[in-house]
Design a protein that fits this description.
The protein is of the alpha+beta class. The chain has helices at 25-38, 51-58, 68-72, 131-136, 140-146, 159-167, 169-179, 214-228; strands spanning 2-5, 12-15, 40-43, 64-65, 80-84, 111-118, 126-130, 150-153, 183-186, 188-190, 197-199, 206-209, 234-237, 244-248, 252-255, 265-272, 278-279. The strands form four sheets. Strands 1, 2, 3, 4, 5, 6, 14 and 16 form an eight-stranded mixed beta sheet that branches. Helix 6 (159-167) crosses helix 7 (169-179). The structure holds fe (ii) ion.
């Protein structure tokens, strides 16, 4: 296995691993160590990878799990399809903003695995930013203040509308009742394996900081989200045939810029593991 860093702080290309083959304990440990170091791994040159191979690489970390909404609806399908074209544009403000998958929920996945099925002729990259580097870029005094602070995450005002369009009014009401309230997470979280401190807010789902007047909360949150926008701590991958990307949901945020219209883009995604982000002040 060869690991080549692809950007300054996160992202690496991995070659010499066949995801169709067996991943023994030694190789799995090597792959996990590479993800802990780089945050995002793109396995390149994977011919004809299928959903089974995608689940196999996810299982290097933990058991694959369905999206929490899919699971709530009684399905055990762990492969999700991300599809957009001219008639099905990406949801407004959703995946196009930096986010941590499912942070509107108490637990987030350990990892996500994404592979392209239809690659648009222009654009369509996935972009990640480094939550460890984002925190490290903040002033020490600010980080001290953030430790122990909590932010509210939810799916936002368009959530109900989108769920209704997708599942109908009755299911949408049940989903809203289960997930609509969102969840409160520590702003400084500790990585479950490396112990590194991470900035745990995201533009997709974080709405406000608890215990602050609205104006101060808005100002603080925009300052924190701004830290992720620095290209120096991000990694962008324009999908190529044979790519399979794995990322650490705690260490990174990700987004899919809506820059490929009117072309189609189709990706298969799989997440594995489920864990509550832990505050730096708690004992893990
Ligand atoms: Fe996502």
């Amino acid at each position: 296995m060869a690991v080549a860093p692809a950007a300054s702080t996160i992202g690496a290309e991995v070659s010499g691993v066949d995801l169709h083959g067996d991943i023994d304990d030694e190789l799995a440990a090597e792959i996990r160590a590479a993800l802990d170091e780089h945050g995002v791994l793109v396995f390149v040159g994977q011919d004809a990878v299928d959903d089974e191979a995608q689940k196999r690489i996810a299982s290097v970390w933990a058991a694959p799990r369905p999206h929490p909404i899919v699971e709530f609806l009684g399905s055990d399908e762990v492969i999700g399809v991300v599809y957009n074209d001219a008639d099905h544009p990406p949801a407004e403000g959703g995946d196009s903003k930096f986010h941590t998958d499912y942070s509107f929920n108490p637990e987030i996945p350990d990892v996500a695995v994404l592979r392209p099925v239809v690659i648009p002729p222009v654009g369509g990259a996935t972009v990640w930013s480094d939550a460890r580097a984002a925190l490290a870029a903040l002033d020490d005094d600010l980080v001290d203040e953030l430790r122990g602070r909590v932010a509210h995450h939810d799916m936002g005002p368009r959530f109900g509308v989108e769920m209704e369009a997708r599942f109908g009014a009755e299911l949408a009401a049940r989903i809203e009742a289960r997930f609509g309230a969102g969840y409160r997470h520590p702003i400084v979280a500790v990585h479950p394996r490396t112990g590194d401190e991470l900035l745990f807010v995201n533009a997709g789902f974080t709405r406000y900081v608890l215990g602050l007047p609205r104006a101060r909360s808005d100002a603080l949150l925009s300052r924190l989200l701004e830290a992720f926008a620095d290209p120096a701590i991000s990694f962008s991958r324009r999908w190529r045939p044979g790519d399979v990307a794995v990322w650490d949901e705690h260490r990174t945020v990700h987004r899919g810029p809506n820059d490929f219209a009117p072309h189609a883009r189709k990706l298969h995604r799989c997440t594995a593991g489920s864990r509550r982000p832990t505050a730096s002040t708690e004992t893990a």
